[in-house]
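Box 3.1 A note on notation
Throughout this textbook, protein chains are presented in two layers. The first layer is the amino acid sequence; the second is a token string describing backbone geometry. Keep the layers aligned when reading.
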Amino acid sequence: MDVMVVGSGGREHALVQVLARSRDVERIYAVPGSDGMAEQAHLIDADAEDVDSVTGAAVDEGIDLVVVGPEKPLALGVVDALEEAGVRAFGPTQCAARIESSKVFAKQLMDRYDIPTADFRVFTSHSEAVAHVNERSFPAVIKADGLAAGKGVVVARDRSEGLRALTQIMVERRFGDAGKRVIVEDCLTGEELSVMALTDGETVIPLDAAQDHKAVYDGDLGPNTGGMGAFSPVEFYDDAMADSVFEDILRPTVAAMKCEGVPFQGVLYAGLMVTEAGPQVLEFNCRFGDPEAQVVLPRLHSDLAPMLAASAAGDGSLQAVGQQIQWKPESAVCVVLASEGYPLEYEKGYPIEGLDEVADRVYLYHAGTARTDTEWRTAGGRVVGVTALGRDLESARDRAYRQIESISFSGMHYRRDIGR
């Protein structure tokens, strides 16, 4: 089949790479893709967030399966438009994508169906939110309701941080319309965990777990980013915990979405906190995690393409395909090389050295690069994800950081504690 991947970041590069290994895939297209994907995918010059352009490109090229990477096109209804045009698409409909595009929707869903999560309050009024923050205990978590590129969550350690977050989100509208409503919730403590699952609306096939590092600086300091690195598997995620996540969170959430009349197909991403009371949901996403995909997908031994096709088909075939899923007995570590200033303001256009010589069992996932006739240049906040496989976490880490020693660009910043 011919497959089109929508998006241009490191996650989409990882998808292109793993799909290129599939015996079921003849040609791969990417909208708009990136220069880093050009060896494995035919790039189509269209805007990933323009639903009509994506749909038109899929129809014109006779695409058999569209795989949507980022959350924004899903929230805009690209899957609905593709299905209406007769093109099969992997990902949730616009209504089902609300599980990510509206944190309020997700929290209220969990509340109705007893899916474990932190206690919360929803506010549309800044003054009412301020009154609540002035009365509550800390730390607390304050979230913008809508999409904010992974940056709309503030863990307020005290009242002044909480009030500042409310001002930034609701008054200054740092995240635009995403700040029309906010959630103020209890701060859970424990170990964070990311678990993604493929689903056709009924069958749920969990993928192996990962941990990511959101804060920009070592030691989990500084503002949240879209992700500075990740690793997989996670040592404490044993069979008992996997069963708990499946039985208490993943399967009930998919069943709840069906009961609500918005069946969910695609990837259900559960961002979890493993507390003393067990795993609880921090957030849901409606697509592959970034950079979690860059450590989970390279470890996948099974063919991903038929699983994505079965999920999109919704014909019950995912159960048989998913039962055969196998993993490489290796660890993976991804370290993100970012531009100086990210996740705030940063410069672009700096030459990048060292992207053409890649060690064995290392993958370079281009997230924000551009290729000229003679060189690579920076073109984003997160520039390259350096992923390495190893027999264990330590050897994968060592291999990733050794590769980084040969890469350089002006202002290059990365965390040195990924996987520790």
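DSSP finds 13 helices and 23 strands in the chain. The mean pLDDT is 96.
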